[in-house]
Design brief:
Helix content is 67%, strand content 0%. The protein has 106 residues and is mostly helical.
C-alpha cells in the first residue's frame, strides 16, 4: 500500500540526504550494487569476430548476402545446416577460414 502524502513528508523530514548520497558514493567505489548483464553472443558473431573479417567479407565467404548474415547475427533467422557447419569451422579454426579466403580472392 503506498504511503500517504503526510507519511511521505514525515519520512522525508527524518532523512539525511547528504549522508545517504555519501554512502551511495562509497558503495559505488567499493563495487557494491553492480549489475552484471550476461549477453549470449550467437556463434556466427563469435566466428566472424575471431576471423577479423567485416560482415561483407564474411558473408561473401559463406556465400550469403550481408542482410542474411545480419539476420543471423541479430537472431532474426537461423543459418542452415551447411552454413552452421561452415560457421563452426570458422569459429574453431579461423586460420583455415583465412586460407579459404585467400584462395577465394585469387
Amino acid at each position: 500500500m503506498p504511503l500517504t502524502e503526510k507519511q511521505l513528508q514525515e519520512r522525508d523530514a527524518q532523512r539525511d540526504l547528504g549522508a545517504e548520497l555519501l554512502q551511495a558514493v562509497r558503495d559505488i567505489k567499493a563495487g557494491k550494487g553492480k549489475v552484471v548483464a550476461k549477453i549470449d553472443v550467437p556463434p556466427v558473431v563469435k566466428a566472424r569476430l575471431k576471423s577479423g573479417l567485416s560482415q561483407s567479407q564474411f558473408a561473401s565467404l559463406l556465400g550469403v548476402s550481408v542482410r542474411t548474415l545480419q539476420d543471423w547475427e541479430q537472431g532474426r533467422r537461423q543459418p542452415s545446416g551447411a552454413a552452421q557447419t561452415l560457421i563452426t569451422i570458422a569459429e574453431q579454426q579461423p586460420k583455415v577460414l583465412m586460407q579459404v579466403l585467400k584462395a577465394h580472392t585469387l
